[in-house]
């Protein structure tokens, strides 16, 4: 399987420095014509490449996934939730492909969904029963949208009981059929 | 400490025992949070639209607080300083920061190159815990954090960390010329501020489009502009054309982003099935209702994958599209002046002051647009007095 994995040495820009062989080179250059004005105070520092005096490097004490589009881990980074479990495996897989590739984003979205189940299991493991009602902020529905909320809840209960009743009836009918 | 904890789409809770943040880098500071907002951008996380949003993360990128600890290389701040913290995490040294593109730092997000680090905004934006908590780790503390002037109300200060600069930059990117007709899509906090700031650049007419009447009424008063409900129009593009001599608006601003309503097909593919980087209805309208040669300024946030936009019309009409995360630090000095002189009154958009303990309710109220909510602010128990 081919991936985009990169190593730091892959990142280099080999530029020309002399253009006298190109007729008319630069004769209409207009540095004022910058569509990013005034958002950017243009210095063209990019031409020097990745050469700036970098901030100190934060120690990498937890697993940090790195975009294949860059050579290193940034000088500072967050350590909120290191990858773990099945979702972590999916995230690691995603980071083999670039930000330009669906093979990056789709596994990440899948990992996020898997992570929700991992979160619930983890809660139970720690003796915490998640309270979906509170977590979803439905206490606010009671305060600000009571009528609609109650109507929906009643409708929900009604539909659920109708389904249960139908299943029970069906079963009863079936058990009457001889054979 | 108390901290918001993301459990999955539409589910957040308050944890009481999250470990205190620590200095991890010599340029870090630890800040005790005094105010922290919930933003329309947080809703994209809350609704599960941003890839690599991990369960257990604390959100919050709009906050102010008091410095309680500094790393060995921090020179400009000391403990006890009260600071507003821009939502962008920026090193100040890289080639992008040095050109004042503080939203595009190259040294704050290892996980993606297309966006710099943002507090509490998934691992796609660096994996930093955010400020919807009692304490937060603030990297590159000498660069972004700005001392809150004595005279400034903390409610104004917290809006200077994102909403005001973003609205201002939305207008700035529009390249508004005196007399221009500016159409702002979205009457959320960002659209409201973009409409208000459009006048500062000399707009001749400002029109806001949304479908929530209470927000339209608010923006009409707050930003002294026209405001219309797109649900009452057959086609918003035709409406804008008819009201601009058929030429189109000079500038259109997208202050809606990935969760735009107004088109069933876009909603299905962009918000429900996640086949696009969001629903692009507002951007679609912006492109189609701007004049030939006009400018579309995008501050609405979209996911990283492809999104359907009428790009052929961009070419045929010769439109310039500009977008970015706001460069908060670049804009702060000017915006502080505007608050001081009373040109801008940010805190008037705050409708809800909610105890941090009720964070789950806060998210729901803002997400479901209950109780005429425009901008909710979370206040940790230790900060009520300040
Ligand atoms: N670029 C940045 O730096 C930056 C910073 C902050 C927020 N944002 C983004 O700006 C956007 C708005 O943020 P907010 O806090 O105001 O959010 P919000 O959710 O409060 O407001 C969005 C508004 O858009 C309206 N809307 C929905 N569909 C619409 C349509 N088709 N046409 C017109 N209006 C429509 C909604 O009714 C709502 O009032 C979000 O995408 C957010 O992520 C960007
Ligand atoms: Zn924000
Ligand atoms: Zn930088």
Automatic annotation (TrEMBL), chain A:
What's the superkingdom here?
Bacteria
Transmembrane residue ranges: 149-170
Q: Which keywords does this chain's UniProt record carry?
A: Membrane, Transmembrane, Transmembrane helix
Protein name as catalogued: Uncharacterized protein
Q: Where does this protein come from, organism-wise? A: Paradesertivirga mongoliensis
UniProtKB/TrEMBL annotation, chain B:
- Looking at the record, the residues that make up the Alcohol dehydrogenase-like N-terminal domain are 26-144
**What are its cofactors?**
Zn(2+)
Q: Which keywords describe this protein according to UniProt?
A: Metal-binding, Oxidoreductase, Zinc
Provide the GO MF annotations for this entry.
Answer: oxidoreductase activity
**Which Gene3D superfamilies would you find in this protein's record?**
Medium-chain alcohol dehydrogenases, catalytic domain (3.90.180.10), NAD(P)-binding Rossmann-like Domain (3.40.50.720)
Q: Name one Pfam family in it.
A: ADH_N
Parts of the chain that traverse the membrane: none
Alcohol dehydrogenase-like C-terminal domain span: 189-266
PROSITE patterns recorded: ADH_ZINC
- EC numbers, comma separated: 1.1.1.-
Q: Which InterPro entries match?
A: ADH-like_C, ADH-like_N, ADH_Zn_CS, GroES-like_sf, NAD(P)-bd_dom_sf
- Domain of life of the organism encoding this protein: Bacteria
Tell me its family. Answer: Belongs to the zinc-containing alcohol dehydrogenase family.
What is the name of this protein? Zinc-dependent alcohol dehydrogenase
Its source organism is Paradesertivirga mongoliensis
Q: What is the lineage of its organism?
A: Bacteria, Pseudomonadati, Bacteroidota, Sphingobacteriia, Sphingobacteriales
């Amino acid at each position: 399987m081919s991936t985009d994995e990169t190593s730091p040495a892959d990142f280099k820009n080999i530029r020309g420095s002399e253009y006298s062989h190109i007729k008319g080179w630069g004769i209409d250059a207009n540095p004022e014509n910058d569509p990013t004005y005034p958002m950017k105070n243009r210095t063209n520092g990019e031409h020097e490449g990745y050469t700036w005096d970098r901030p100190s490097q934060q120690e990498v004490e937890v697993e940090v996934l790195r975009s294949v589009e860059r050579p290193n881990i940034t000088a500072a980074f967050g350590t909120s939730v290191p990858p773990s479990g099945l979702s972590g495996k999916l995230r690691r897989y995603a980071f083999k492909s670039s930000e330009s590739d669906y093979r990056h984003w789709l596994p990440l979205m899948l990992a996020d969904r898997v992570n929700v189940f991992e979160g619930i299991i983890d809660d139970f493991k720690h003796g915490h029963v998640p309270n979906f009602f509170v977590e979803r902020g439905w206490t606010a529905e009671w305060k600000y949208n009571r009528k609609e909320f109650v109507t929906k809840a009643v409708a929900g209960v009604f539909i659920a009981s109708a389904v249960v009743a139908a299943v029970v009836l069906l079963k009863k009918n079936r058990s009457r059929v001889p054979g | 400490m108390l901290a918001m904890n993301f459990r999955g789409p539409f589910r957040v809770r308050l944890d009481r025992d999250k470990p205190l943040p620590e200095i991890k880098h010599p340029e870090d500071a630890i800040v005790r949070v005094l105010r922290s907002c919930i933003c329309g951008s947080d809703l994209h996380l809350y609704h599960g639209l941003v890839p690599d949003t991990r369960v257990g993360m604390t959100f919050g990128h709009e906050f102010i607080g008091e410095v309680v600890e500094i790393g060995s290389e921090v020179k400009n701040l000391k403990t006890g300083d009260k600071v507003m913290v821009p939502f962008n995490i920026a090193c100040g040294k890289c080639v992008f920061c040095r050109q004042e593109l503080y939203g595009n730092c190259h040294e704050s997000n290892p996980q993606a190159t297309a966006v710099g680090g943002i507090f509490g905004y998934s691992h796609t934006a660096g994996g930093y815990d955010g400020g919807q908590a009692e304490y937060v780790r603030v990297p590159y503390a000498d660069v972004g954090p700005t001392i809150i002037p004595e005279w400034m109300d903390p409610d104004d200060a917290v809006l200077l960390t994102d909403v005001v600069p973003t609205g201002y930059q939305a207008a700035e990117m529009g390249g508004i010329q005196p007399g221009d007709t500016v159409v702002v899509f979205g009457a959320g906090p960002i659209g409201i501020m973009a409409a208000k700031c459009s006048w500062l650049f000399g707009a001749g007419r400002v029109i806001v489009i949304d479908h929530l009447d209470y927000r339209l009424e608010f923006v009409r008063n707050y930003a002294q502009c026209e405001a219309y409900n797109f649900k009452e129009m057959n086609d918003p593009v035709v409406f804008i054309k008819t009201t601009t001599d058929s030429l189109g608006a000079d500038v259109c601003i997208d202050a809606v982003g990935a969760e735009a309503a107004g088109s069933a097909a876009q909603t299905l593919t962009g918000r429900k099935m996640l086949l696009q980087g969001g629903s692009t209805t507002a951007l679609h309208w912006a492109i189609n209702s701007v004049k030939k040669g006009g400018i579309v300024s995008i501050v609405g946030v979209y996911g990283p994958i492809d999104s359907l936009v009428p790009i052929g019309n961009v070419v045929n009409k010769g439109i310039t599209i500009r977008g970015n995360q706001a460069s908060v630090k670049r804009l702060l000095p000017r915006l502080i002046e505007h608050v001081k002189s009373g040109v801008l009154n940010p805190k008037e958009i705050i409708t809800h002051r909610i105890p941090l303990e009720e964070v789950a309710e806060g998210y729901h109220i803002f997400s479901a647009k209950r109780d005429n909510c425009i901008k909710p602010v979370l206040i940790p128990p230790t900060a009520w007095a300040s």
